[in-house]
Amino acid sequence: MSQSASTAPDALGQALLAYQRGHLSATLAVHSSVADEEVLPASYFFRSLWEMPEMERTALEECRGRILDLGAGAGCHALELQQRGFVVKAVDISPGAVQVMQERGLREVACHDIFDAALTHGEKFDTLLMLMNGIGLTGTLDGLERFLQHAKSLLAPGGQILATSSDISYLYEDEEGALVFDLNGPYYGEVEYTMQYATETGASFPWIFADPALLQDCAEAAGYEVEFLEEDDQQQYLVRLTLR
C-alpha cells in the first residue's frame, strides 16, 4: 500500500459509486494469484441483513459498545448496526467506498488503512468488526501479527475483535486429496489480488486467508483469548478475540 488512498487507482470505489448512482449491473473483475478471474457484483456490497450469510448476522448479534468497522466497503454492516442504535465508525481505504457510505447516511466514516496511526485519534472501541474475510485486511502473516499488536491500542478494556476468515488449503489438494504446497515458501494463505472496474485497474494488494490453527496460534501468542463462534462447510469461520 505504497500509494496514498487519495492517489491510488480505486476500482472498488468506482464500482460502488456506479451502483450507488443507479448502475445496478456494475461488476468488478477480481484477479488473484491462486484462482481464475472472478466476477464480483457491486450489489454484493449493498446487501440487506437478510441477504447476508448467517455467519455475518451472528457477528452483528455479537457486537457490543462502540464499534469500529474495518474494511467497511459500502457500509452494509455498519448501517445495520447504526439502525440498531449502536455508535459505529466505518473505515475503508477506498475513497469511493467512503463517499458511498457518507451518501448512504453513515454518521461517522473515515478513509484509512487499518495500520494508519490516525485511524482513531486515540479513541478506544469495544468491538472491532472485520467481516467478508476481514482478517485478509492485514495482508500477510507478518501483517496479521503486526495488526494483533496494533489492535491493542484500539480496544477499550474488555474489548473484542470479531472477524471472519477462511482456510483455502483445498485449493492445493491433488486428485487423491493430499495437500501439495511448498512448505519452505510463503504461507499458502497469502494471496495477491487485483481488482478492475471498466477501465480502472487498482494496484495489486496482499490478502491473507488464515486457517483456524494459524489464527489461534498468532492470537494466543499476542495475548488474546480465542473463541471460534461459527464455521461453515466452505471452510469459513467467525472468531472472537479478547485480550487476556
TrEMBL record:
Methyltransferase domain residues: 67-159
CDD domains: AdoMet_MTases (cd02440)
Record SUPFAM superfamilies: S-adenosyl-L-methionine-dependent methyltransferases
Keywords attached to this entry: Methyltransferase, S-adenosyl-L-methionine, Transferase
Record's protein name: Methyltransferase domain-containing protein
Organism field: Hymenobacter glacieicola
